């Protein structure tokens, strides 16, 4: 609660500039957290989730900020399966190089 995750760059694999989770059934909760200036670097067709990439996990963000994050897909957040909730969360200044989900990209929604 009340943390900042920022100025991170993931050059290898390009998944989740600040957080990358593939733990099926896991739940991650963020409260008053700022994700700023994180980058999932485009490499060999990959570069997803500038701040967060989640596959199979559940993400809850309350009163969070996603600012100035970059990736090819889902510059703020890239979500693939799982249950997600964003409440009073702000997205600003994020940039998707491939123009797929400047703020949020959802893959395989159910």
UniProtKB/TrEMBL annotation:
GO terms for cellular component: extracellular region. SUPFAM superfamilies: Pectin lyase-like. Its main location: other. Keywords: Cell outer membrane, Membrane, Secreted, Signal. It comes from the Eukaryota. Pfam families: Chlam_PMP. InterPro entries: Pectin_lyase_fold/virulence, POMP_repeat. It is found in: Cell envelope; Cell outer membrane; Secreted. This is Right handed beta helix domain-containing protein. The lineage of its organism: Eukaryota, Viridiplantae, Chlorophyta, Mamiellophyceae, Mamiellales.
């Amino acid at each position: 609660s009340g943390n900042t995750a920022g100025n991170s760059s993931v050059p290898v694999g390009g998944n989740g500039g600040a957080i990358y989770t593939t733990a099926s059934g896991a739940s991650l909760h963020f409260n008053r957290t700022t994700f700023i200036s994180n980058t999932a670097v485009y490499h060999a067709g990959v570069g997803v989730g500038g701040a967060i990439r989640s596959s199979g996990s559940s993400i809850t963000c309350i009163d969070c900020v996603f600012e100035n994050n970059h990736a090819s897909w889902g510059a703020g957040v890239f979500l693939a399966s799982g249950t997600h909730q964003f409440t009073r969360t702000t997205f600003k200044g994020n940039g998707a190089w491939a123009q797929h989900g400047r703020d949020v990209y959802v893959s395989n929604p159910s």
